Queue: 2 jobs
Job 1
Amino acid sequence: MRDGIIMEVGAGSLVPEVLMLKHEGYRLVQICATKTEKGYELTYSFGQAYKLVNLRLKLAPGAEVVSISDIYEPAFLYENEIHDLFGIKVRMMALDYEGNLYRIDQKNPFQ
């Protein structure tokens, strides 16, 4: 049972884990980014009934991540936000605003 866990995943295993959760009937709840001393952490949260599963991905500065928007379409909004605010490159987004999701004075203010 995966309820309430935080699973650390590598960039290469993110998409397979997300596909498995989709196949098990989980929905995307949120994607959150935060800056750390060594780079960034992305937390992908998925829910099913009253169960919550989190996938945590640690990224070095300048690292890229593959989009999950072809699996969960609404992910493109979170991914564009992460790109705009943190400067994290997200490859193969279903809809890429190319850094223009938000009108902000400073590019990548949380970088």
Job 2
Amino acid sequence: MELRHLRHFVALAEEEHFGRAAERVFVVQQALSNSIRNLEDEVGVPLVLRTTRRVQLTPAGQEFLIGARETLALASQSVDRARRAARGEVGRLSVGFVSGLAFGGLPEIVRRFRELYPNVSVDLRELTAQEQEAALRGGMIDVGLMLLPVRDPGLDSRALWRQPLVAALPAGHELARRRRLTIGLLRDEPFVFFPRHLRATYFDQVMRWTSTAGFTPNVVQEAIEVPTLLSLVAAGVGVFLPIQFFSRLALPGVVYRPIDGAPLVDIVAVWSREPAPANPVVKAFLTVAREALGEQPQASPGTLAPDP
């Protein structure tokens, strides 16, 4: 049974005239008449009573009209959903994010995406960068949000935002009295930092940056989460070099100071080359993420890049 036959039947039922119904559906009258006869042959019972003045529905035709309208409405809804899905307006999206982005970046992106795409169900999963890469390869998440580009050839990435490193110092530290610092001033300080195996690119690039000032940080304590590291700073265990947006985390006992010449760190969106680039929901999310952060990343000689 063809949808065009149902459309012709509904038009005839509502116009009660073959000529007017044919004009309404943009066919000649004979084509409409043939369409109705084909429909009656397929249903197996007469649907209309033909008179010289008007067309009336048989009792069977009246019942069939109810179903025809419902079928056409469902078909229209299906077409609409398919078109909206192609535009990324409906569907599901699983997003991985590193914990630090909960303090800056993630709230802005998710809030804006929900405003623009309320019919997309968003599942947020807190994962390390390594866990996100594995989840992307395994199809467990659609897109990841992390720091610095990835080097997996099966994954693609886009820089969304760039932030400089800053110094997190104990509130009573002598350097906290200064408005700005240079990296050399931290030469003799104990540091707290991530374990290298969790943030290898970040770790190595920071070490290369400090080496330009003639020293290697003395890491006296490691922790895997930014709030924990900042708590260690507050306790006076050492200093830390977080990204600027972590200064939003106003932890008692911690002050943040900008560092002259500090490298910029990319916050990136990462997705699988296959098949995610063709996923319109992922494309919509990437567009919103870039716009929500309100900054177009530009090349900078100080940017932390992947290891050569």
